[in-house]
Structures are given as C-alpha cells and as structure tokens.
Amino acid sequence: MFDGQKAIRIAQKHGAAYCDIRIENITKNGITIENGIIEQSTIIQDSGIGIRVLYDGAWGFFSTSHSDKIEDGIISAIKAAKSIQKKAKIALSDISVQQKTINYPIQKEIDVSEMTKISQDLDKTIRQNPKISKSLVSGIITLTGKYFESSEGAKITQNYTDSTIDMVATAHQYGMTQSINITEGGRGGLEKLANVFDVASEISDNTASLLDAKQPKEEKAALVMNPDFVALLTHEILGHPSEADRVLGKEMAWAGGAWWAGMLGQKVGSQSLNVIDDPTIPGSLGWYEFDDEGVKSQKKKLVEDGILVNHMHSRETASMFGVEPNSSMRATSYGFMPLIRMACTCIEAGNWDPQEIIKDTKHGYYISNMKVPSIDMKRHNWSISAQYAHKIENGEIGELLRDVIIVGTAPEFFSSIDACGNDFTVRPITNCGKGDPMQQMKMGNGGPTIRGVATIRGIS
C-alpha cells in the first residue's frame, strides 16, 4: 500500500514548496480475434505512485510500484529540481482545493466473457461478406482507480471503466487490397458498445465495395466531411495547437508547435467555426471531474465565431498567461508527469441538417471517416487520409472513391467553413501520443458534419 500523506510529509521535510501524489490501480482485460481465432487474451495489472515536487521554482518527479523506495525517490526528484538551470521560477495559479470521491456510472456491466463473445460475433459479422479476406477485432475493458492528494489539502478519488472495441475489415481481389478500421466505445460499460454490430456490417460492406472504386483526381473543391473525419481533423489541427505548452514552444516533440501561437483575440477561421474542449461530456473517453492537478473540470471555449479566445492550461501556464487554470493536465499513468492534454476537443454544432448541406453542394465530395494524419511542426500544413469518399453532383451522393487524401492549410481551410451540421458526435480516440518520453492517452474528439474547401487527391 502507498501512503500519500507520508510521501507529502517527506517532500516537505526535504524542502519542497509543493508536492502532489497520484496513486493508481489499473486492470486491463483484452481479447483479440483474427479470422475467428482468438489470437490473444491478456490481463494486465499495474499499480504505483507518481510524486511531483516543486523545489526552488522547478519540477522534480519520481514514480515507483514499490512502496519501500519512496523516500529515496523523493530525494532524487528534489536533486533533479535543484540541478535545473532556471530562466524563471515556476509559479502555480491558485485553485479551489477539493476533497471528493467520484465513481463514474456504468449503465450495463460488462465482463471479460461478455467482451469475448461480442468480439467473436463481430468477427463473424465482418466475415459474412465473401470478399473479406481478413477480420481483426480487439476488445478492451480497462478498470482505473486514481487517488490524488496534494500538500494544499486536496484528496480526490476517481474510479471508472472504459470499454472499447477496434475493428478492421480487409478485402483482397485481383491484386488489390482495401481495408477500413474503426474504434467504438467510451467511458462506461456495455451501453457504450450498443451500435457495434451495425458498424461491423457497414465497414464490411464498404471495404468490399472499395475493391471496385476508383481513386479521386486531384481537385480543390467543396468538401463535406462527416463527424468521424472531423474528429481527427479537430484533434490534429485545432486540439493540439490549443495546448498552452505547445503554444509556448515548450513541448516540441511529435509535431509540437502551434500554428496560431501569439494570435489570441485574432481571427483564425470563419464565423461558423466554434471550438470547445469539454471534459464534462458523459461517456466520452475524456470525461473526468478533476484533472491530474486536482483542478475541477470545465467546458472551455477555444474558438468563438472564428476568433481564438483561449488555450488549454495547466496551473503553471495559466499563471504565465494570467488566466484561470482550466483542468487540462493529465498523465497516461502514475509513471509519468502530467502534460496538458485534450479531454474532448470538438467543433460545435451548427444549425444545418447534414442532408441539406449535401443538397446545397453543387459539386464536391463527401468525406467519410478518419484514417492517417500527416502534419508539419506547427500543424499549419496538413494532409489527412480518409477511409473513403463519394462524389457530390447537383446535391446528390454519387460515385464511391478509394485511397483518398485531403490536403490543406489551417488558416485557409478553417476560414472556408460555411456550414456546420446539427449532428454533433463525439468519437473515441485511444492512442494519442505526446511528450518525450511519449505518453499515449485516451480522449474524445468530434463535431458535426462540416463543409469547407480543400484539395482532394488519391494516394498515387
């Protein structure tokens, strides 16, 4: 067992001005089915403590899964903080200190045997189409217990379950291979997987259809993007650049810049563009009541009517910007220092019926579902591949297209948005990487159907 109060007392005894601890217990149950065969069944359990100390205006950090190593670890963390050559000492914005226990609700319990049965049935559903050559289904149930305590008096316990399923359908014929992958699920139990069989049938049929599809010709055109594609676009080009450490140039790993650095109060998109980050959305993988600094979660407006109005902040960066911290600090586990991370960054809904956006488009393309992003260091120039697309002619959906890539620049594209649908949707993101060493984080991203102008092209 780990004693958080003891760790804090040790840190204070050795001169730390501030200390917080995170004690975590994580159990992950996973099942992988490939073409009807159980390829992997895993149970991973991990527990430990992460200790963050502020000494003479610099951070030190230590983590361990062994309770007998805490004092030596705290001393090493303080030594590390002492050794940092500081241009300016770190200051923390004040917060309301909380003591609370939160057990996040589950509407329908799910266990390993049920997840295994669901995954097997999904695999069968995907393989019902005779053109499917490979099906891959991975179901994961993650149980997390987190306890946060600080030298300021915070004591916060949060317990939650995440249920997710990854599905991949691959079709092969006449030397051509096509695949579609998708993730479903969220924070909760079986209720977060309610639509997975419909999704499995859809990706199976669409994958098979792509074998007969053509690539698009390169063209700059009106693009109507579905919420799944918008989720990745928002994540990469609006979410990461909103993280204040990246705005300040302090976190340059993994394309760590921000194209709108220094542009607070300036126009960054059309009046139709409104962007939020909201950890209070129930069921999202980014749903939490307190971040990993003990800051109460809140919905934050990042872009309002096309104007950049705020960033995501830690207590440290909030002090630098002279604003309130806004519950944006999270770590992958007790083993890492918290970083500024998205919770659930989304483009807000508009008033358009999605079908009316399509009907209003004389010539363009309907872009469906996220695939792979490619971005420059400041996320100004970007290309994101889509699972597939359709031509739009005279307001009607037409020819199916494969191997689709969308290319644009951030200011030009977001200034071109002229329609946002009323079909706001949050999608699960399970593998966002940031930091050095890299931390993978789960979160939500999303938005509605939107229309803007960018370049569509094929892979070759």
Automatic annotation (TrEMBL):
InterPro entries linked: Metalloprtase-TldD/E_C, Metalloprtase-TldD/E_N, Peptidase_U62_metallo, TldD, TldD/PmbA_N, TldD/PmbA_sf
Domain Metalloprotease TldD/E C-terminal: 220-433
Residues annotated as domain Metalloprotease TldD/E N-terminal: 19-83
Record's keyword annotation contains Cytoplasm: no
Any Gene Ontology CC annotation: cytosol
Pfam hit, one: PmbA_TldD_1st
An example Gene Ontology molecular-function term: metallopeptidase activity
Protein keywords: Hydrolase, Metalloprotease, Protease
An individual GO BP term: proteolysis
Top-level lineage group: Archaea
Family: Belongs to the peptidase U62 family.
Protein name: Peptidase U62
